[in-house]
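User:
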Amino acid sequence: MLLPITGPLLHSNGPFWGFAPIFWPLPSRVPGISDAFASNPVVGAFHRDGLWLFAGLAALHAALYVKRRQDRRLQAGR
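Assistant: Predicted structure:
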């Protein structure tokens, strides 16, 4: 749940502020968030590690789907 939130925090208030344009009608800075919080290495590490966790869980989900589908086909073929 926090992964999509930390990306805009890092982009708008963090150490990489303004590295790429954002084409949306919202302001480029997140109001109420201090630059010190967004620049905290923990926020960046959470975003990076959360991305890999999400990617791993998505791959696991797809693999289990394929396995379950194969098991059902084998059961129906008996």
